[in-house]
Amino acid sequence: MTAAHRLPLRVGLTGGIASGKSTVAELFAARGAPIIDTDRLARQVVEPGTEGLAAVAAAFGPQVLTADGRLDRAALGRRVFNDAEARRHLEAILHPHIRERLITILGRLSAPYAVAVVPLLVETGMDRDMDTVVVVDLPAARQRQRLTTRDGLSEADTEARLAAQATREQRLAAADHVVDNSGAPGTLTGSVTELHQRLLTEACGIADQARKEDPSDE
Q1: Same domain, yes or no: 23 and 45
Q2: Quick check: pTM over 0.85?
Q3: How many angstroms separate the most distant Cα atoms in the chain?
Q4: What pLDDT digit, counting tens, does each position of 159-174 carry?
Q5: Which has the closest alpha carbon to 193: 7, 34, 24, 12?
Q6: 121 and 200: one domain?
Q7: Which of 18, 31, 127, 187 would be 146's cystine partner, CB 3.0–4.6 Å?
Q8: What is the CA 90 to chain-centroid distance, rounded?
Q9: Does some domain include residue 218?
């Protein structure tokens, strides 16, 4: 296949905090789709001995490391949580490493489509690496309710976390497909099943087009 018509179809899955991304990813996985969790990649790129950890320590100082040289996530979180400039600096360090790992993994997969779960897909511009973007959507009031109930956050902490992400409107503007998670649990399963079929159809269309353009690929 040509670079422009390769499989798997790259599906970027995103949504606001507490919107239900993990649940939707599990539903896709149950239908056979490979899932790449970029939160897990984010932990991998700051393991001891990595360039990512060295860069974080250089930028934020040895106080963000534990005694055995690992990343002290709590200390780093306190440093960047209420400091937008520090948070952007951290993201600028980590996201290129995360993106590199993600693209490598996607290139090795053999499947009609693969789902990359990227909480900050829109904010980091990684939506441009995807063939299609799926946004899990939830009204802001329901999102706040879920966040405070799930994590036991104060109103101020809830608002701070929401402010650190793209707005609902920004995510929806980037979406090719929207999964509404405001209804009953059963409706979410049906929505993902329907979208699964759409993505399979889209992937088949790409494969057919590639065979027409380059019959030697068969």
Answers
A1: no
A2: yes
A3: 60
A4: 878 888 889 999 999 9
A5: 24
A6: yes
A7: 18
A8: 17
A9: no
